[in-house]
Amino acid sequence: MPPRSRVRDGAAAVGPDSDSAAVGREQTRQRIIEAAADLLAREGRDAVTTRAVAVAAGLQPPAIYRLFGDKDGLLEAVAEHGFATFLAAKRIDPDPQDLIDDLRAGWDLAVEFGLANPALYTLMYSEPTRATSPAFKAGMEILMGRIRRLAAGGRLRVDEELAATLIHATARGAVLTWLSLPEDRRNPALLTILRESMVAAVTNQEPAVQDAGPAGAARALRATLPEQTTLSGAERHLLREWLDRLASEG
User: Fold this and answer.
1) Which residues pair with 203 in a beta bridge?
2) How far apart are CA 224 and CA 66, in angstroms?
3) pLDDT > 80? residue 150
4) Where would I find the H helices in the chain?
5) What is the DSSP letter of 214?
6) How many CB atoms lie within 10 A of CB 147?
7) Which of 23, 36, 47, 122 shows the smallest number of beta carbons within 10 Å?
8) Is domain 84-205 classified as CATH 1.10.357.10?
């Protein structure tokens, strides 16, 4: 009988051990992130030192350096954990009864998360590069779904990209402004006024497709273009250019 391949036998032997090591590494990583997030929530960002996190996680500091590189890498991972936690809390209604109330509900949820997790929220939005976070992008795609439904229903007053920026900016600004105020100056009317100003800026109270102008109808049709299969890619691209021009005249 020919000798068995050492490479193949070695690979077979190492496979399960390698998988087990990867699982253990990920569990340790999550333990450290959760310990850091807990410290952040209880004592603030300055309390999140590598030594304090290591003690809270029941590990030695070198484990943090091996997994995250340095404290900045750890904070980056905690911020991503925050985006993932917020994403898990988002409620998605694919067919809401009232499109504008659905927009309000999404905005309120974002603000409530920030107010309930002030230190984490501040960390999440302290660096512009966090917009590249996979969980952040997934959350923005949920927002874009709401915006596309508004556009398809003729309820969107502005361009989809501008609407997303306005909605996100007002929610983020509302949270950070609220947190910056002394407690005795925090008036709930601030949040309501900001939300309703956002709603008025990005939506029409009545479907724009009922109006004489073409802009609302163009936005509504443009929102459904990704679902169209009758037109070729080149035809959809050309039609979108025309619709962009019509929509910008509104």
Assistant:
1) 156
2) 47
3) yes
4) 6-43, 50-57, 61-68, 71-89, 99-116, 118-124, 134-152, 160-180, 188-202, 215-224, 233-247
5) S
6) 25
7) 23
8) yes
pLDDT band at 225 (very low <50, low <70, confident <90, very high): low
Q: What are the residue boundaries of the structural domains of the chain, listed by start?
A: 18-69, 84-205, 209-250
pLDDT at position 204: 87
Q: What is the mean pLDDT of residues 106-128?
A: 94
φ/ψ (deg, to 5) at 115: -70, -30
Question: Residues near 22 by Cβ (< 8 Å), separated by ≥ 6?
Answer: none
pLDDT tens readout for residues 181-211:
999 999 999 999 999 999 999 998 766 444 4
Tokens coding 80 = 């991503």
Closest CA to 200 of 103, 96, 98: 103
Q: Name the least confident of 61-65, 91-95, 202-206.
A: 91-95
Closest CA to 246 of 201, 211, 214, 220: 214
Q: What is the pLDDT of residue 92?
A: 76
* Tokens describing residue 247: 């929509």
Q: Is the pLDDT of residue 65 over 70?
A: yes
Q: Which residues of 87-103 are buried (b: 16+ CB within 10 A; e: fewer)?
A: beeeeeeeeeeebbebb
Amino acid letter, 234: A
Torsion of CA 70, 72, 74, 77, to 10 degrees: -140
